[in-house]
Amino acid sequence: MRIACLQFSPKLGDVQANIDRADLLLKQALPQEYGLLVLPELAFSGLPRLRRCTTIKPYLEPSGAGPSSEWARNTAKRLRCVVTVGYPEIASTNAECSQATSENSTAPASLCYNSTITVSAEGETLAHYRKTHLYYTDETWAQESDTKWLTTTLPIGPAPLTDLSTREGSDLSPVITTFGICMDLNPYQFTASWTLYELAMHTLSTGTQLLSLSMSWLTNLSSTELTTSTKQPDLDTLNYWIERIVPLVESKDEEVIVIFANRCGEEPGDVRYAGSSWVGKVGKGKIKIWDIAGRDEERVINVDTRDDPEWTLQTVDREAVDSTLQ
After folding, report:
1. Would the pTM of this model clear 0.70, i.e. be above it?
2. Which residues contact 144 (CB under 8 A, 6 or more apart)?
3. What is the pLDDT of residue 108?
């Protein structure tokens, strides 16, 4: 499979400028160079951090019909690949949403969701996922997915080794894919047991081959630490992500390809994002990474999963280590 994810630094609320920035970063991409392209959570609206639902109201997009969905379809057709992008969805009429997100409201906006849409190379909707575990800032405007986790198939599997210019979508095999959005990786509301591993266990139970995560993950790094080592990943964040998919890593039978498509950059109010997007394969006690972006680096990660991974991490048997030290 050819998998790409776009890590960039969208500006809060500047939808058109963010679309233009994404187009610029993807300008050199060739048709059929990617099989799948994944963008971050709320890629073009940015992530509202204020505890007021009116912050997001001007940027809500009708289900599968706003500027993010239009961009996904246009880009998928241009690049002849499957595209996933995060966006703030309004699934109700304008009147209903206006009532739900009135300026005096402090309750979650009904019928609005933090979503991703996935479209085919022909611009057809393949999947539409709504975030299941909401972060506290989501709770001011969005509601939880009414269908929980989404697992489906995407036509992105290995094709016969032919010239890219002659490869057709019909040559591609279906890949069982599970979707998640940022906080989905965490225990529900940070109150559920750490060891439930809700998303990871669902991934295992469904025979998922590919886990695709669109993220707006924060970092504890200082502004100086971000800007002085832009191309170095945030290793604390990487370690945390791996801890949250331990059941996949420790699976003795299967390996799962994982995509962590995060954003980078800073926003007013001391808000900084971890970047460090990566594509890898986990299972059988190992974490194999084809490519990983820096903590504050705007670029496209583009990997071919038929190639050997660049890095391999090996898990350690903690009990064996402890007994050796005693």
Report:
1. yes
2. 130, 131, 132, 133, 134
3. 43
